[in-house]
Design a protein that fits this description.
154 residues, alpha+beta, BH3618-like, nine-stranded antiparallel β-sheet, two-stranded antiparallel sheet, 31% strand
Length: 154
């Protein structure tokens, strides 16, 4: 099927590519169906493109790309909502904000990751109760911190 988007033009997707967020995203409960689009080959970034709203896409990143000790602990209720089973493959992304003209100041929302059950094609944005994480966590600073720790560890 064809999906018309503002950012990517018209793209072809399969019905099986659609990820359903039954509760929508935080602050966007009306948007429930999305597809993941690779930013470019080899990039840690992805786009979460709305199927219902052509102009809405969120930039995402794999949080372990820049924060090796990131932890996502799901409550029993979240596990149930995500229909997690022993066979489930879970994928986690965080949203990225890039201030205009300042890519070096990009941040990630580590407090509210997007968790996708790739097996069931359903997702949720969960709120973590962990004071280590913020809604505007500096990505490049975290990468440097992780590199420095690795180098000092030998």
């Amino acid at each position: 099927m064809e999906l018309h988007t503002t950012r990517f033009g018209t793209i072809n997707i399969e019905a099986g590519d659609i990820i359903t967020f039954p509760d929508g995203l935080v602050g966007l409960s009306q948007l429930k169906r999305f597809v993941l689009i690779n930013h470019q080959e080899g990039s840690p970034f992805r786009w979460l493109q709305s199927v219902e709203e052509p102009g809405f896409a969120l930039l995402l990143i794999d949080p372990w790309f820049f924060c090796a000790d990131y932890e996502v602990v799901l409550s029993d209720a979240e596990v149930e909502r995500l229909r997690v089973s022993d066979d489930s493959v879970l994928v986690v992304y965080t949203t990225v904000t890039i201030p205009p003209g300042k890519p070096h100041a990009m941040t990630a929302n580590l407090m509210a990751p997007i968790v996708i059950n790739a097996t069931e094609r359903c997702g949720r944005q969960v709120i973590l109760e962990d004071e280590r994480y913020h809604t505007r966590h500096p990505i490049l600073q975290e990468m440097w911190r992780t590199t420095e720790r690795a180098e000092s560890a030998g």
